[in-house]
Amino acid sequence: MASMFRSEEMCLMQLFLQVEAAYCCVAELGELGLVQFRDLNVNVNSFQRKFVNEVRRCESLERILRFLENEMENEIVIFKPEKYPETPLPREMIDLETVLEKLESELQEANRNQQTLKQNFLELTELKHLLKKTQDFFETETNLPDDFFNEDTSGLLELRSTPTAVAAKLGFTAGVIKRERMVPFERLLWRACRGNIYLRYTEMDTSLEDPITKEQMKKNVFIIFYQGEQLNQKIKKICDGFRATVYTCPESATERREMSDGVNTRIEDLNAVITQTESHRQQLLCEAAANLWTWGIKVKKIKAIYHILNCCNIDITQQCVIAEIWFPVADSGKIKRALQQGMERSGSTISPILTAIQSKMAPPTFNRTNKFTAGFQNIVDAYGVGSYREMNPAPYTIITFPFLFAVMFGDCGHGAVMLGFALWMVANEKTLLAQKSNNEIWNTFFGGRYLILLMGIFSIYTGFIYNDCFSKSFNIFGSSWHTRPMFRNNTWNPHVLEENQLLQLDPAIPGVYSGNPYPFGIDPIWNIAANKLTFLNSYKMKMSVVMGIMQMVFGVTLSLFNHIYFKKTINIVLQFIPEMIFILCLFGYLVFMIIFKWCRFDVHVSQKAPSILIHFINMFLFNYNDPTNGPLYPHQEEVQSFLVIFALIAVPWMLLFKPFILRANHRKAQRMLQTPAMSENPAGDIEVEIIDSNHAKKAGQEDRSGGHVGHDHDEEFSFGDTFVHQAIHTIEYCLGCISNTASYLRLWALSLAHAQLSEVLWTMVMNIGLKNSGWGGLIGVFIIFAIFAVLTVAILLVMEGLSAFLHALRLHWVEFQNKFYVGTGYKFSPFCFKSIIDGTTED
Questions:
Q1: Hey, what domains does the chain have and what are their CATH numbers?
Q2: Cα dihedral sign, 144-147-150-154
Q3: Which pTM value belongs to this model?
Q4: Helix segments in 572-684, DSSP class H
Q5: Average pLDDT of 714-734?
Q6: H/E element holding 172?
Q7: How many Cβ atoms are within 10 Å of 247's Cβ, its own excluded?
């Protein structure tokens, strides 16, 4: 549980594996998913690594699997078992290659045969339609004898106007062309042949399927009459250019009928053969579908293992694989057991060896999460992955993020709709996870389902605090505003309270206010008051300031735990303490004044209450002679002067002391190193320099492990850099306290904006349907409510919800986390089969 508040403790170890056992050991570590391998061959080209051939074989298998999957698309359902198959042994890869290559060759041969048969079927179908249309043409257009095309006639023939008149050696060409190419085809024929042709065409009744693209095509049958060989050659070239299919058509009607009968017979035979071929192809695909998903998982696992082995070194004897791994210290027992299982599975007798490595590399950051905390951890990591072992903001974000969102979004009705949507996702999460949608927007909502759940719960809570539900109030406990019997007159009666559109609530009027606060939340009478906005403005603005300063103080307090863990005593004394003094003396005192004024001044003396804002400004100006703004309490001048002076002292405390003390410590360390070195080797200037350099490196590494910057980014101490960095930190913190406090006023602004939008939507839409009476009003209510529901979801839930979410995100990233969170680490990316298969692994 401690790892929730701080990243896991990691260790770097060198792993020695026997070559025969390396594959199985890496496979077991992949199943475990708790080990990150370092690439020891960064400078080696990918094509020059040891197991590049195995990786290529895996890629070839993946290509075959993609081919099979494309063939099954929209035809056959792929069977997916509930559990992933075990990682295959290296020798099983050969059997898998044989099976897949054989299946690929058979399927490709079946596809080629089917394509050839369909091409033949297409040509015969076109020829069938061509013969029919040609026969119809000769029967309807002309009554020509069978020896018509063999007669010798003289004289020039106008084919276009008189098709029955013929010239010597008259011929014709018949074919099929796509329908969209018919118009330009006809135009080009007319121009190229100068009108010395006679063209007739007709549309085919049925669509034809392209054997390659499997698209439906619409075609036309055409017949062209011409005279002379020269025109014949032109027509053939034009037909080739437009990809028109030209068929040999007999001149005799008898031959055409005989040919048509033969074509019909061949089409019937082809249909039978195509059916058998398709049946054989479907049988092959069904056999593949039963194991395709399993084969894919196995290939992915094999490929991932060889990728990891390519990141390892092999010793000069070619008998030992050397790897460097990061893993959590808490899981060292699981890792050792996994290595032992891998050794036993491979049949090796030499146990793997783990040895610790002393390294200056910063360890990766690993925060263990579950399905509930993963969404909140992702919010934190989106700003920056935490430095190693520093405080993790995610556990606190689980509460503060949905709460600050709800402060801006507070509405019982909208919160209930959001809660219902989140509960539906949580209740059906197994079904929704199994669907594996590729919609990025949906995946974002589903991934944050528990975040939305908490936002809905907190929104309902703050909605009760604001007493706001779809811009209307609950009157659960009755109003605390009422008239006593002695004051009940024509001015304050129930009728006036209901009908008066300019009702002004003034607590100072005697006898009108009971003096008792409303039991929970805001009195419902404010919902009809004209000065409602004035009252809520003051309430929500002060509430925002109080919550913002509390969260910032909490963030500064968390930095103390970082300093204590990394044993940075100097940061506690010279950074944490002055930071707390500065923020508490100024802004902590502001919170005190707000709460004190709430408790000190009741409804009867509220008009005499001084302004907190004027007091806070005068506090910095040391101006205590303002006759228009009296003191809040006795001795206020002395207390405020002391707090301002103490806060001003904290500024040079943060700015000056730390750089000078660090420089003094550095010089002291140099003298301590030089004294023993000079006593042992008086002439050893070079040795002293080397020792000093090593000490500086060690000191820099220790500072880096602390997660805080200063002089720790350089091997040599630089007073100038340290002083500038400290000055930047001091200025940023002091100005940030002011700007961050003002930034929390967005809680007040967005809360008022959401309430006003909700009220406008109710007034302009829903209120119209409720005013009408009768049957027309009843029907109108249904229509109006549908419009109201759509606008509520689109504007108030989606748009306003997204706006409040982004502002809550900014308050955590900038105003809260910058007080203690460095976020300069890198994420722990373990070698995990599940992440690789699901596609969620880090690059």
A1: 2-104+285-356 (no CATH), 147-251 (3.30.70.2750), 370-477+531-564+731-826 (no CATH)
A2: negative
A3: 0.79
A4: 577-583, 589-600, 612-621, 636-655, 657-680
A5: 86
A6: strand 170-178
A7: 16
